Amino acid sequence: MNLSVVLTAVLGLAALAYHFGRRRAFAVVSGRVRDLHSLPSYYGMHTALWCGVPALIVMSLWLAFEPSIMTNLVVERLPEAMRHVPESQLNLVINDIRNAVNGTMTGNDPAIREAADYYLQLRTVSHAAMAVVLFALCAAGGSWAWKRIAPDFRARNRVEKSMSVLLILCSMVAVFTTIGIVLSVLFESLRFFQQIPLTDFLFGLEWSPQTAMRADQVGASGAFGMIPLLTGTLLVSGIAMLVAVPLGLMSALYLSEYAPSRVRTFGKPLLEVLAGIPTVVYGFFAAITVAPFLRDLGASVGLQVASESALAAGAVMGIMIIPFVSSLSDDVINAVPQAMRDGSYALGATKSETIKNVVLPAALPGIVGSVLLAISRAIGETMIVVMAAGLSAKLTANPLEAVTTVTVQIVTLLVGDQEFDSPKTLAAFALGLVLFLITLVLNIIALHVVRKYREQYE
Amino acid sequence: MNNATSPKGIYAIAPERRLGGAAHTALVQRRKAAEKRFRYYGLGALVVSLMFLVLLFASIIAKGWTAFEQTYLRLDVDFATDVLVPDGDRSEQALSSANYPALVKNAIWAAFPDVTSRGEKRQLQDLVSSGASFELRNIVMNDPSVIGTQRSVWVPATAFVDSLIKGQMDRSLPESERKLSDLQISWVDHLLSNGHIEKRFNTMLFTDGDSRDPELAGIGGAIMGSLYTMLVTLLLSFPIGVAAAIYLEEFAPRNRWTDLIEVNINNLAAVPSIVYGLLGLAVFINFLGLPRSSPLVGGLVLTLMTLPVVIIASRAALTSVPPSIREAALGMGASKMQTITHHVLPLAMPGMLTGAIIGMARALGETAPLLMIGMVAFIVDVPKSLTDPATALPVQIYLWASSPERAFVERTSAAILVLLAFMVLMNALAVVLRKRFERRW
Amino acid sequence: MNQPNTLTRIEDPAMAEIQPQQAQPTFSATEPAPEGHRTVGKITVDNPKMSARDVNVYYGEKHAIKHVELDIGTNEVIALIGPSGCGKSTFLRTLNRMNDTIDICRVTGNISLDGQDIYDRRLDVVQLRARVGMVFQKPNPFPKSIFDNVAYGPKIHGMTSSRAELEDLVRWSLEKAGLWHEVKDRLEQPGTGLSGGQQQRLCIARAIAVSPEVILMDEPCSALDPIATAKIEELIDELRENYSIVIVTHSMQQAARVSQRTAYFHLGDLIEVGETEQIFTNPEHKLTEGYITGRFG
């Protein structure tokens, strides 16, 4: 039976349960709603919950475990020759069977065809069985709750209790996401470090995963030293911050301290527009407009500028981060109490003297926090560098050369054909782990600093 | 401000340093200059930042606006029976696989009867896009009665002809450096002079899927892919985000556990998007076995990414509802849940929706995580369900941006303009919502 | 000078006691003085440091100060008193143009310092504030060291030519503010770490370090405890030797203790000015009397 039909049927049964529950609530007090503990609709909802929720839970469990159980059954029926092979090859066979089942690939191997047919057959049986179980659960749960309806039954409390359980589950999604991120990158990274020693990865000065592919065939391992990637990332982010911090900070100072209100009402949102532009657009701008411009400019003054220079990527990334720095600094600057400024003005200080000597020192922790957040964003930024920075992992501090970054390598390693056990693919997860840890530390420090700063003036 | 007015009998300051003294006056000049300079630095920073914005838009509009037009050729096509149905089989299957390219060739050759050499004939047929035969097939499939008749049909020209007509090809270049030969240019000029070439609004850009041929490549597939992805994201992130915000703001006790959730959410909002892509690849595709490249997985990943934004915005909306409303409802004997669903939530809803729309706008422009889960494949078909392989608008931009042809640059810019238009629309909607329901307590 | 129609109404003192509201219908605590009110008492002094003539302040639409005329004498302490929101702080802030920092605020009329109009376009507001210093209601030391707090003003005005001179000036100012002995061993510690009273004296030291001629004090003691308040009051009395001081205060006792002249403001009007002793013992205007005797405030 089709899954969506089953799902619709379960939901339909729940709706029916609501109707009957509500009717019975009216009936048990012969229409005098005042005698009920809760409103009739709560009795309906209670019945519907008992009808639907257990069934839905069983359904998701069933679907979660179904594929692995069925795959085992199918594998057991495979011909001996196909079954007794190394695990990685067996995985390929299973993959072929899955593809044949989904109809995305019509394999020519009759054994696989047969296995796929068997799989489909099993699935039909399994779904039919599931439907029967689910409907039975609906009926049992619904009728049990229906029987319990009585005037002094506290339906509302129970419904609200289950609603708050739902709310708690939703708020846990954030926690699960973090756990998921940590586990997924950590798990694959550990597999990577089984093949490549951790110290080689952390302190190696050479990065060339492509040769690793070739070297693999002759039994040698490639170079997976992440230092060149890290320096490349730092170079690009550094250039970005050199652009973003002065421009963002000065814009924020101008807007909050000097600008007439009309300039402020237009200037601020316009600046925010820069933050709303998708990064892929910046990447395109960097690759098509800025990089050729810088190359030609360099050529005209006799400088050799690579067509995928760190400068182009960094500068455009800086532009993207300007509003980030400016809006965070704006908040921070506005949090400096007016009394502090007044104290300086009353001594005969000019505006700029007040800003430089009083406002900025007072706002410094907050500004540092926002710059840290901006750095974390620059390090994690992907599209601009993918499109405008190069792939060559060079250990250089020259902004006119092409460098590569951690994010560029993650994308390069994972886009396109991949085998899941090669160090090349797993390396992407190790890089992901490094990226996650760096940004996490930066974020935690920055958020802590900013919070402490806010508390100071609240 | 002479010496007489400066305080007597107090700390002795050298006369030239007192207010109005020579040294002091000079200093005042310097301070005023410094003040002016600082102000100009600030103004300069703002102007430079905004100039980048203008430059960005200007460069993209300048590159992209031409893509909204496409050059069409008029062909007098002879739907010859012997070419289309050589064996008399007029079944749908036979018609759909008939030799339409031959029709196109014959038609363009017929337009220049004096071209006879084989090489020149090939050059001639290179003027017409390979999409022309699809066009003819559509005509025949819609109305098989055209077989055996003649009809003039407007078909797309190739990207090279298109760029020649749009003036993007430099005629003064030596022939070997041009994509069109002198002969081809003379034919195009001839067609132009007798009105057989025309620029029209490029509807294919909005309806078609991707293609290797620039003139046939459209963002229709990418728009549908983005739409499905956003649908999943909206349907999941909004209810979950609102529910989480309600719990954290209204029910959660203040303890270490909720502190942890709070820190967690703030951190998640700052995790690089590509890390979410890794999560999606490892969990949704490799662990749960959901279909690769599908809008479903894309939507799930973007949901996780958008969730912190929605939760933070929703919490802010909930805090802005004054406690007096809650107290009033509780005072009437409403349960806490009733108070929230009947009173607090409706008041906070506009703020929550605004937050959700802004989060969705961000998700719409997100590219990196989608690359990770394989939405980067070359997909010609427009996706028809949540599990079909699909690409998304920003990913399409990324794909086209890496193609060197001038025609793809133009289309990339056009796709960017469409993407930006969507984002402007969403943000405008958020602004309108905020303005309309803004309430001051 | 008096508004006869208001005073003649109260003929029977008993009735005034029973129904004070009805007894003075035009002058209540919540209504402004009638249009065209003129200040009671002598607004001028023999050698004025500053003088205000026909000063009006508007906050957007709101007319916050109405036709105020007042002289501030050299080396005198003048106290501005009146109920909350009467405009005394606003008037104080017009004297060194601190109102300029508020966008919607507009000032008309004429205020002069040593005969020079301080609202003159050519006048540099920065120089004005160096001559007319200000101490605020809440102590607002900069988030810097104690030394830097005091040295800040002299530094920006280039008042000293060497580090030794600057140190000398800082020490002098702190001594003058009576703070030196309490902080001399911790000049490098942040000014925000001092107690409230010490912070306020630090702010006074900061103000006098630039050798102002007039010091404006906006309720300088309202955030302080009685002992700290007593110290500040003592200080104000000493500072009178060298400066003209304008102090806004809520406390009538404080006004009586520290000032030579007192001005009473009521809802934007300057009702009465006079020698402090006369104002507190024998006020001429009914409103002043009402405030002094605690009938409203």
UniProtKB/TrEMBL annotation, chain A:
Belongs to the binding-protein-dependent transport system permease family. CysTW subfamily. It comes from the Bacteria. Gene3D superfamilies: MetI-like. CDD domains: TM_PBP2. The chain crosses the membrane at residues 41-65, 128-146, 166-187, 234-255, 275-294, 306-325, 358-375, 427-450. One of its GO terms (cellular component) is plasma membrane. The keyword Acyltransferase does not apply. GO terms for biological process: phosphate ion transport. This is Phosphate transport system permease protein. Part of the binding-protein-dependent transport system for phosphate; probably responsible for the translocation of the substrate across the membrane. NCBIfam families: phosphate_pstC.
UniProtKB/TrEMBL annotation, chain B:
Gene3D superfamilies: MetI-like. InterPro entries: DUF3333, MetI-like, MetI-like_sf, Phosphate_PstA. Residues 223-430 form the ABC transmembrane type-1 domain. It comes from the Bacteria. It is found in: Cell inner membrane; Cell membrane. It is a multi-pass membrane protein. Its main location: membrane. The chain crosses the membrane at residues 40-62, 227-248, 268-290, 296-318, 344-365, 414-433. The keyword Cell membrane applies. One of its GO terms (biological process) is phosphate ion transmembrane transport. SUPFAM superfamilies: MetI-like (SSF161098). Keywords: Cell membrane, Membrane, Transmembrane, Transmembrane helix, Transport. Belongs to the binding-protein-dependent transport system permease family. CysTW subfamily. This is Phosphate transport system permease protein PstA. It comes from Plasticicumulans acidivorans.
UniProtKB/TrEMBL annotation, chain C:
Residues 19-29 have a biased composition (Polar residues). The lineage of its organism: Bacteria, Pseudomonadati, Pseudomonadota, Gammaproteobacteria, Candidatus Competibacteraceae. This is Phosphate ABC transporter ATP-binding protein (PhoT family). SUPFAM superfamilies: P-loop containing nucleoside triphosphate hydrolases. Residues 1-42 are annotated as: Disordered. It comes from Plasticicumulans acidivorans. GO terms for cellular component: membrane. It comes from the Bacteria. One of its GO terms (molecular function) is phosphate transmembrane transporter activity. Residues 50-292 form the ABC transporter domain. CDD domains: ABC_PstB_phosphate_transporter. GO terms for biological process: phosphate ion transmembrane transport. It holds the Pfam family ABC_tran.
